[in-house]
Amino acid sequence: MAKTKTITFQWEGVNKRGQKIDGEMLGENSAIVKAQLRKQGILPKKIRRKSEGLFGIGGGGGGGSKKIKNVDITIFLRQLATMAKSGVPLMQGLEIVADGLENPAMQKVVLSVKDDVSAGNDFASCLKKHPKQFDDLTCALIESGEQSGALEQMLDRVAVYKEKSEALKQKVSKALKYPMVTLIIAAVVTVILLVKVVPTFQGMFSSFGSELPAATQFVVMLSEWLQENYLVLFGSIIALFFGLKEAIKRSPKVAEEKDKLVLKLPIVGEIMKKSAVARFGRVLSTTFAAGVPLVDALESVAEASGNVVYRDAILKIQDEVSSGTQMNAAIRATGVFPNMVVQMVAIGEESGALDAMLEKVASYYEDEVDNLVDGLTSMIEPLVMAFLGVVVGGLLIAMYLPIFTMGDAM
Questions:
Q1: Which of 67, 98, 194, 344 has the highest local Cβ count within 10 Å?
Q2: SS3 letters for 79-108?
Q3: Stretch 39-66: mean pLDDT
Q4: pTM for this model (two decimals)
């Protein structure tokens, strides 16, 4: 039997206090939506099908093709955790959250999970059917919460972990993207000057009949070469970019060398190191507090480290801990974690509050990443302005040198 398609409806109504409210709701038809609103104590006044946007995006739920992002998963888990803390049953919470999601593709996933749960399956196994959206760590934590009868607390813990991880990821992404974008803009401005502006001056210089200054000759030669070979240049850049991307994806050795190189870069390398340490503390504190055995938790941490160097280091820590070594000694032996992490872990092991100490480590290094990213942004802005000034100013001076020389000769 074919599943009935759900549609997004926009509604306006009056609540129990007589206040006018509006919103959106998924339903098979307007009558079902009206009945749902009345169950919630809302008197519906207007119900209409939500019109589709450009290329059909923004219309009926469930059939959209908008890509599901990590932030969509984070929002879903946070909203579901809030519902659970408020005492809302899981089934009803999934339905309410699905109604409020703006991404049609995410709505479809949540409704699919709701249908599986209503069929009698446990929540964690329903999430495992969507591995692209819910990773092994998330499913394992929720499964642990279900088995211990503390799903409400575990949902909140997973939501916090996802929120912190997403915030850290955004900070690191900002740190990496900002310099790249500014350099690309500078390169585009330089190319436009060489291809469009310099040829205008070149035509004028040909009528001078005298030898051009060396700087002007260099700029003219560069402009001529770029006009003749711009397709080869851009093609080579694109081929190099995608070639490196594929090589990193397909070759573990290339990926490892890339991760090692990134850690050696000034400022950016420091950001990547601190973000890896913050991720280590956050994931390990979350999994350990959830009752996951330390050795198993370290395996999850290694997969979520985000850097080959730190992944290998964490796997070495796992081997040492499984053979009976204290974790603080195993961490010190890797040589990639700051001394502060070693001391905090040692205190946590001695006091029996390892998860709390690891959470403090995560919070500290997340703040450190935030400060470094802000510092990088404020430092790059004047550097980019100076770079553009030197490039643009240098090209203009080179172009006006023959005019100044001719004026002196007169």
A1: 98
A2: HHHHHHHCCCCHHHHHHHHHHHCCCHHHHH
A3: 59
A4: 0.63
